[in-house]
Amino acid sequence: xxxxxxxxxxxxxxxALFADKGFEATTVEEIASRAKVSKPVVYExxxxxxxxxxxxxxREIQSLLARITTALDEGSTAxxxxxxxxxxxxxxxxxxxxxxxxxxRDSPPGQATGSFASLLGDVAGHVEHLLAVEFKARxxxxxxxxxxxxxxxxxxxxxxxxxxxxxKYKKSEVAAHLVNLAWNGLAGLDPKPRLETLAGxx
Length: 202
What we know:
The protein has nine helices and no strands. It holds the Pfam family TetR_N.
């Protein structure tokens, strides 16, 4: 193999092992053995397991973020944007199951690459300004858009994790239920929400 070909092979091997066993349980010896190379080859390309993991995670983050960004760019109405973004995440989970398993696990201590939590924060940032426009048009406070953006993104991401382990529902059904809850909840928002059980308390 050429150097670039070997590097891609090691990334594929590492991705499969990290998805199956997690970062901590995966060893350089195992990566090298699966790729049929010596340990020094792994160190030569990535400096160690941490370097390989960083490359794998970065690729998955860029892939998912690109899908969701494209979905948001192609949307027309607020509801259409919500549907497209929801389907983009579920499409990623379905087609890149190994990558999603890696992203939802905790990064190793001191890992400099992004995490799933930081990725969701990036996505929420994209959604935030869209919600602000929608809120203003509906007479709601646009300053609350960041809160709702994070709630929406978190709801979809957590449901996606649940669906990954329970595939008895079709992807379109999961998306339809998510959009139904999110959209109808947004449609009926109180301008100044309060908790009845905590009236008068901060």
